[in-house]
């Protein structure tokens, strides 16, 4: 029985990573770091979930003797970069530059009408979720979701299953009662490690990832309704008995 849909945010609810990348570059410029992430480099860096973790990974790539800088200095700089980046990203989303992907809102509304629970499981920062969904759904957007797992609740980022395990606990459901929606390999690994059948809607940043274990890989959710999801979910449960 399908009782809940759990959505990733970046790349899944909306194709946000171009805006995130531009926001990182804004922060690098503001701080005079001389760094610039083009599309090809950002596509590689997206292997690292979490903006702060991604910056640290990059800093270690370009500055092997980063160990010479004291750890608190590194963390302070990363925090400052991320603060500037998040403010710029929020302004971009508030300007209306980022729309939900096709079919997302309709599926959310259909799930609500049929009494399914909805949750969010993301590695992004809470302010980014609020900016996106306030703009896309309205000021009461939170009422649509039983639970929200993000960088503030799940510090251990995807592909670790922490955020999905938190959502299953918050929903009081077993993995076999839910379907996850993701866009990336890290997201798929995280959802599957939590036992969740997963629908993948790749973006240009993740189209090359390995999605062989996904329940379905689709260009977007525009052709997906709840009846179709229930059918795929029942088939997936028949193959892998519920936990
Ligand atoms: C994608 C991420 C995030 C964003 C940047 O999150 O890995 O880090 O790229 O957002 P999702 P932050 O799990 O929704 O795909 O800078 O706030 O981390
Ligand atoms: Mg994602």
What does this structure look like?
The protein is an alpha/beta fold. Helices cover 46% and strands 9% of the residues. The chain has a 6-stranded parallel sheet, with helices on both faces. The model has no long low-confidence stretch (mean pLDDT 96). Bound molecules: xylulose-1,5-bisphosphate (XBP) and magnesium ion. Magnesium ion is lined by residues 8, 10-12, 183-184, 187.
Tell me about the largest β-sheet: 6 strands, parallel
Give a count of the beta strands, DSSP E runs of length 2 or more. Answer: 6
Give the CA-CA distance, first to last residue.
13 Å
Oligomer: single chain
If you average the pLDDT, what whole number results?
A: 96
Low-confidence region ranges: none
Bound molecules: xylulose-1,5-bisphosphate, magnesium ion
Summarize the structure.
Helices cover about 45% and strands about 10% of the residues. The protein is α/β, with parallel strands linked by helices.
Structural descriptors:
9 helices, binds magnesium ion, alpha/beta, 243 residues, binds xylulose-1,5-bisphosphate
Note the topology.
Blueprint: E1 4-7, H1 17-30, H2 39-45, H3 51-62, H4 71-94, H5 104-113, E2 117-121, H6 126-136, E3 147-149, H7 162-171, E4 178-182, H8 185-193, E5 197-200, E6 216-217, H9 226-239
Parallel strand pairs: 1-2, 1-4, 2-3, 4-5, 5-6
The chain binds xylulose-1,5-bisphosphate (XBP) and magnesium ion.
Magnesium ion (MG) binds next to loops.
